[in-house]
Amino acid sequence: MFEVRTDLALEVRELYQEEKQQEIPGVAVEQENTGDVNITRVEILDQHGAQVMGKVKGKYITLECVGLRRPNADLKDEVSKLLAKELKSLAEMNKPMKVLVVGLGNEHVTPDALGPKVVSKLFVTRHLFQFYNKDSDEDLAELSAISPGVMGTTGIETGEIIRGIVENIKPHLVVAVDALASRKMERVNTTIQLSNTGINPGSGVGNKRKALNEETLGIPVIAVGVPTVVDAATLTNDTIQLVIKAFSKQVKVGSQFYNMLNELKNEEKYHMIKEVLEPYSANVMVTPKEVDDIILHLSHIIANAINIALHPGIDLQDVNRYLH
Q1: What positions belong to the pro-peptide in this record (predicted)?
Q2: Residues near 127 by Cβ (< 8 Å), separated by ≥ 6?
């Protein structure tokens, strides 16, 4: 397959299906519709599946909801509950745990500020455990959180910061929240992906740093991400697809013009677009103009999900009443 810019396992699977007209060998897919939310669970089972997908073996869960761009209170609660359920399943939480939540990204760049904003809304408790000299609690997890900033402002690799914290406080689990990129504008800010494979900080804006995963940190890492941007070449490619589809309806089927449009491969279009955009700074990321409000809503949803997933004694009524 040719490489299209996306961080979503769901979209990599779609690209393969479009090209090969079949499922990827070594990859299991399960879909569920809850009404407002579509859930797709993709599990990469073996090395062949990992090679085709370009991702490591593990589970990738995607929640899609168009209403996330302008969610009401009921929809936010519904998505938070579904996200919390999937998060608990991935983390295999049987009892309260010591958890470190890492909010990746740059708080001064709105499409990249999701991680820091989520961290600001969490019910952190590690200091309370320390103050009362407690090892565990039936209602609360020992939760700590950090927003390490970006290398351009700290001069320190994010992985180094997180590894140092993990070595000192010794959590059982890391939950990393970051912005991602999508290949379709319709999925920008309407999709939440979870995985148990870790994450590469900065992947959403094309600036991958050292991975945060079980191999580098020594403990399981759950990644939570939302595509907040789409790159210009991908957006243009999708737009041309729509234009070709519209033009094809206006010409006679079987004509030379129709055949030329219909036989133009995605790979040819995509690379042509990248070549055309290159002199004009092709590495442009696009996001909706309402991104400020959208990031605020999404940070509430994800923070609520993490709070109720990790703290057994806290429910949505508690977090909505006291934490916002």
Answers
A1: 1-7
A2: none
Domain ranges of the chain: 96-233+284-322
Report pTM: 0.87
Check the CA dihedral 256-258-260-263 and report its sign.
negative
Per-residue model confidence as pLDDT tens digits over 10-30: 999 888 887 788 889 999 999
Q: Report the half-sphere exposure of 181 (CA within 13 A, side-chain side).
A: 23
How distant, in Å, are the alpha carbons of 5, 170, 201, 287 from that of 121?
30, 23, 20, 23
- Reference 97, options 251, 278, 310; nearest CA is 310
Q: Into which CATH architecture does domain 96-233+284-322 fall?
A: 3-Layer(aba) Sandwich (3.40)
11 Cβ contact partners less than 8 Å away, ≥ 6 residues apart: 4, 182, 183, 184, 187
Per-residue tokens: 70: 């302008």
In the chain, the amino acid numbered 62 is T
71-127 tens-digit pLDDT: 999 999 999 999 999 999 998 877 778 999 999 999 999 999 999 999 999 999 999
Closest CA to 62 of 35, 88, 43: 43
What distance, in Å, lies between the first and last C-alpha atoms of the chain?
45
Question: What's the residue count for the chain?
Answer: 324
